[in-house]
Amino acid sequence: MESEKQILFAGFGGQGVLSMSKFLAYAAMGAGKNVTWVPSYGAEMRGGTANCLVTIANEEISSPLTENPLMAIIMNKPSLERFENKVQPDGTLFVNSSMVDRKCRRDDLTVLEVPVNQLAEELDNLRGANMILLGAYLEKTRVVEVEDALEHFEQIFSGKRKEIIQKNRQAFLAGVEYARNNW
Amino acid sequence: MARGRVIFLAERCKACGLCVEFCPKNILVFDDHTINVLGFHPVMLLQPDECTGCGICGLMCPDLVIQVERE
Amino acid sequence: MKKVLMKGNEALAEGALIAGCRGFFGYPITPSSEIAEYMARKLPKIGGAFIQAESELAAINMIYGGSSTGTRVMTASSGPGISLKQEGISFISEAELPCLIVNVSRGGPGLGGIQPSQADYFQATRGGGHGDYRIIVLAPSSSQEMMDLAILAFELADKYRTPVMIMAEGTLGNLMEPVIVREAVTEFLDKPWATTGCVGRKPNVINTLHLSQEELEGRNRHLTEKYKMISKNEKRAESFLLDDAEIVVVAFGLLARIIKKSVMEARKKGVKAGLIRPVTLWPFPDEHIQAVSRTARTILSVEINMGQMVEDIRLAAGGKIPVEFYGRIGFTPNPEEITRQLLFIAEREGLL
Amino acid sequence: MKTVFKKPESLTDAKFHYCPGCSHGIIHRLIAECLDELKIREQTIGICPVGCSVLAYEYFNCDMLEAAHGRAPAIATAMKRLLPDRYLFTYQGDGDLASIGMGEIVHASLRGEKITVIFVNNTLYGMTGGQMAPTTLLGQVTTTSPYGRSKDWEGYPAKMAELLAQNEGSAYICRTAVNDPPNVVKTKRAIKKALQTQARGLGFSMVEVLSTCPTNWGLSPVEAMKWVEENMIPYYPLGEFKVKEE
């Protein structure tokens, strides 16, 4: 089994797609893995959805791009429309069910849903929605160990206010807990 | 007696005539008997005794032809 | 060994600083502006000069001036901006002033788009401006190489007294990955030709005007000798799985790295594919092409343009082997797309 | 006898290539005299333009560069920023500075670059054979304004000293002429003041010098000097337009 994993992050601007995917890239590097992070660029830049592709591997990464990522983290409905057919057969979708009001149309994918916005509201931290989904994702996939990610939290958010780091940490852990309890 | 002395680097002179025009004593002329390497009749001092060494000829010369000395 | 997660553009800028670059003069243009932004933050803190010039023309002439002081200087731009800089690059080449010019390329002609591109290959490898000259052109394929080739670029620039260009697709500028940050360069060549004020020596003149035919021809012969020397010494390319390769892909930049995966995938399906990745676009690594011309069945040039490097490959192959072309515009092909192309060729050639 | 007038040390022995009576030679000499008197020859780097004075690097006995057309201020900018204790001067004609190099000169002034610009205005492109320049006077006939420059077609001549004096970054802006001995003396004084402005780090300095082009004007050198007085000075008034004291 190859270790290389390619994960697509998609949502609309402002949902923190770039920052959650960057977090994963930092965490992966912190855990000693090879990683590439490519933001959507060019034609895909205009049109409301932001997306980003992270590749994580133990070996040297040849291609940081792919047509068919193994996993997709879907933050809103237009992203589902656009990317559900791109994910590899037997791949996994992580869906923010608060923002997507329909089910995935493919039956060969594992679909894991998190009502991210509701959870974020419960935490009174709407901006932390991205970290909730990321926490759930990492707990489920262990692409990077949750403990490793937590260990690099301060470093990844270095320069940010203490309070902000704390809120992100709380959101991340809420996602981890959701995955433990529901998946 | 002259109070000034003018030395010409005649091979640099292009006979533009600005020194001739602005000399307050009107004592500079073109040397019709000489043709320099540039093909011009270079300037010369007609009445050396009259030169006051005011330096105006050097000031107006665009080609550094003239060196002026004064007592 | 310190690894830092860096965007390609940042890695390049940091590499330039590591190489001792102390002057950046540029004009904003997508997708290169991050390099200027990085330098604007860093240079003032280490006693360097950053100026956002009023135009690309001013920027390249600031490079002319900056380099004349003996300082390592650079600029960065993209397609339309690089076109505007060409007059200056011609002057800088003739004045033999070392500098780094970065083209984070976008698609043209005209304003084109801001998508990744390799369509400035001709412009870069043929000199770009007026007169007989060449510039060294380096094509990185990772954030690490963005840094390492920036350091190399300054070294080659000083060694040969020539502008060096780094050409990278916009995607590479934005791609983020861990980079091993190199040690600061501490050894530099003397530059007795620099115009720094003639204290205790005869005045230096930096000039590109040669009105006498003999002098002009002499200058051109001198430059040509220098270009021959560079061609002899500085060709660089990466070879990947060439030993038994029947189909050899030639590609540069980030695209080449993506195609490595295509080559591996094609091999899994029984196609003996290989890859040549020119690292120097000028001088072009023609010996690499010549070597596979004797052993392979066909060469495929893949480029993000409508077919430019393919001409250099054909020149190098000298008709000994078919050279075909596959190109896209405004888009970096995914590995799967090139794998399909390799399978298509293999099937057509009966290599499966 | 003491020498009251001779070639300054800051000029080489090379003979000027200029036409007879062309005032570039006078202006070169004035700059060189200032460098001598301020004792800054070895600290000075000059940048010459494209135009008749393209070969000026052969005449100044200091480090010199030859610039692309119009770009001398950009080159000087970078050099001064990297060598802040050196003196940078550019020597530019009117086509170079006020036409193709309009962007560079305006922005060097806006940034308050601590450089000195010697701007030689002779109302036309001399080297290329007398074409219209941004400084060509209304009614003036050139090879590309054969019916005389018209305000309705070619528009108005550029008053660069006035234009640049408006910029906050400009510290010393002056217009002089070299059409007679008193004006030559004033020009030298202005150039020296401009270099001193640079020494004091006050900002951008420029001396616009009204100059002659006897060849392309079709006048004798002496007539050309009179033409400056009668035609140029009325449109391009002499004097200091900006003097920043700190």
TrEMBL record, chain A:
Keywords: Oxidoreductase. It comes from the Bacteria. Gene3D superfamilies: Pyruvate-ferredoxin oxidoreductase, PFOR, domain III. The lineage of its organism: Bacteria, Bacillati, Bacillota, Clostridia, Eubacteriales. InterPro entries: 2-oxoglutarate_synth_KorC, Pyrv/ketoisovalerate_OxRed_cat, Pyrv_flavodox_OxRed_cen. Residues 13-177 form the Pyruvate/ketoisovalerate oxidoreductase catalytic domain. This is 2-oxoacid:ferredoxin oxidoreductase subunit gamma. PANTHER family: 2-OXOGLUTARATE SYNTHASE SUBUNIT KORC. It comes from Syntrophomonas wolfei. GO terms for molecular function: oxidoreductase activity, acting on the aldehyde or oxo group of donors.
Automatic annotation (TrEMBL), chain B:
Residues 4-33, 42-71 form the 4Fe-4S ferredoxin-type domain. InterPro entries: 4Fe4S_Fe-S-bd (IPR017896), 4Fe4S_Fe_S_CS (IPR017900). GO terms for molecular function: iron-sulfur cluster binding; metal ion binding. Pfam families: Fer4_7. The keyword Iron applies. It comes from the Bacteria. Keywords: Iron, Iron-sulfur, Metal-binding. PANTHER family: FERREDOXIN SUBUNIT OF PYRUVATE:FLAVODOXIN OXIDOREDUCTASE (PTHR43122:SF2), FERREDOXIN SUBUNIT OF PYRUVATE:FLAVODOXIN OXIDOREDUCTASE-RELATED (PTHR43122). This is 4Fe-4S dicluster domain-containing protein.
UniProtKB/TrEMBL annotation, chain C:
GO terms for molecular function: oxidoreductase activity. The keyword Iron-sulfur does not apply. InterPro entries: 2-oxoacid_oxidoreductase (IPR052368), PFOR_II (IPR033412), Pyrv_Fd/Flavodoxin_OxRdtase_N (IPR002880), THDP-binding (IPR029061), Transketo_C/PFOR_II (IPR009014). It comes from the Bacteria. CDD domains: TPP_PYR_PFOR_IOR-alpha_like (cd07034). Residues 245-330 form the Pyruvate:ferredoxin oxidoreductase core domain. Keywords: Oxidoreductase. SUPFAM superfamilies: Thiamin diphosphate-binding fold (THDP-binding), TK C-terminal domain-like. Pfam families: PFOR_II, POR_N. Residues 14-185 form the Pyruvate flavodoxin/ferredoxin oxidoreductase pyrimidine binding domain. NCBIfam families: PRK07119.1. PANTHER family: SUBUNIT OF PYRUVATE:FLAVODOXIN OXIDOREDUCTASE, SUBUNIT OF PYRUVATE:FLAVODOXIN OXIDOREDUCTASE-RELATED. This is 3-methyl-2-oxobutanoate dehydrogenase subunit VorB.
From TrEMBL, chain D:
CDD domains: TPP_OGFOR. GO terms for biological process: cellular respiration. Keywords: Oxidoreductase. This is 2-oxoglutarate oxidoreductase. The lineage of its organism: Bacteria, Bacillati, Bacillota, Clostridia, Eubacteriales. One of its GO terms (molecular function) is thiamine pyrophosphate binding. PANTHER family: 2-OXOGLUTARATE OXIDOREDUCTASE SUBUNIT KORB-RELATED, SUBUNIT OF PYRUVATE:FLAVODOXIN OXIDOREDUCTASE. Residues 57-200 form the Thiamine pyrophosphate enzyme TPP-binding domain.
